Amino acid sequence: MKRPDMMRRLSPIAATAFAPALLLAACSGEAETGPAPLTEEALAAVTDNAGAPREQLARQVDDLFSDPLVAETRAVIVVANGELAAERYGEGYGPETRFISWSMAKTVTAVLIGMLVSEGKLDLDRGPPIPAWRRPGDPRGDITLRQLLQMRSGLRHTEAGDPVYESDEVRMLFLDGRDDMAAWAEAQPPEAGAGAKFEYSSNTTVILADIAARVLAGQDASPEERRAAVAGYLREQLFGPLGMDSMLPEFDADGTLIGGSLMHATARDWAKFGEFLRREGRTADGVQLVPKAWVEFMTRPSPREEQYGAQTWLNRKPTNGDPVLFPGTGADTLFSMVGHLGQYVIVSPDQGLTVVRLGKTQDAERAPLVKALGDIVELYPSR
Predict the structure, then answer these.
(1) Statement: the pTM of the whole predicted model exceeds 0.85
(2) Which of 32, 69, 101, 266 could form an S-S bond across to 246 if both were Cys, CB 3.0 to 4.6 Å?
(3) Which domains does the chain have, with CATH numbers?
(4) Whether residue 161 has pLDDT greater than 60
(5) E runs forming strands in the chain
(6) How far apart are CA 213 and CA 217, in angstroms?
């Protein structure tokens, strides 16, 4: 993930040493055009104690806003060793803007499930409390909570299919499943044995959200009771202690948290959540909200996909398909919340780093964006 322009990475001493050669090259007409001077806006976005070379960080953050290949960046926050290193917004956006999560919400839902497991209300290796799956002879009764979290339930699913309106997550979110998303997702038949196949699925995370509602509100609760129970629990047990006051989760008509796609928060609050994961489930003042072992589980490779943990993407070479992050850049312990259209909360515990990027980049055109994010990560050494 090295930049082709070597001069961006030269220290002041090295730059001075190269000056005579560059002057000669310029006189002979062979000099290359150097990078444009940084704007005041680009420099102002980076703090004096950024934990990395200030101008390099400012330039690489600026690339996220100025490079047309990256498309539209709306917010960037970099936190290094618990301190703000950079913060910048696109035109029309700012610190009070709530940004949609898309699939970053999956990681939040995994933490919700982890809290319920830690309270003894759920068991990782038992079937979840879904009545339709517990009928005698139903093969879905073999699916465990662990397998749901690791996206290996075996349920029939096509994510982001072609045409898009036939994709299962689109049908669930916006078409025939929209009023009772969990019932629609849970009604899908098996297409593989429980645990045998990795299949990324937004619908699976809605099933997890339904499980949380059944535990917190009861099996026969009304939509209003389900919504109030889950929203209240998240606010009191997670968002409140983290100071994530802007967090706004969405629910469907049956009162199920749309836990795979639709939560809204400011960039600063998304950064707070990333830092919470970097601290292994602790608040800034040391309160353990979810066990350290649960965060370790979320960031440990699934048995069926090396670059996926439990509702969280990992910086590993994929078992199948293309890499989602940038294995080889940054630590292999780095992980990320990743959402549709280029939403990222990247966390690297070994580097003491959290990077938030929010915006709009088409999923098929993410490669330049991922490279630019990897360049920021690469500025920070492992501790």
Answers:
(1) yes
(2) 266
(3) 1-35 (no CATH), 99-314 (3.40.710.10)
(4) yes
(5) 72-80, 83-89, 99-100, 248-249, 263-265, 313-314, 335-339, 343-348, 353-360
(6) 6
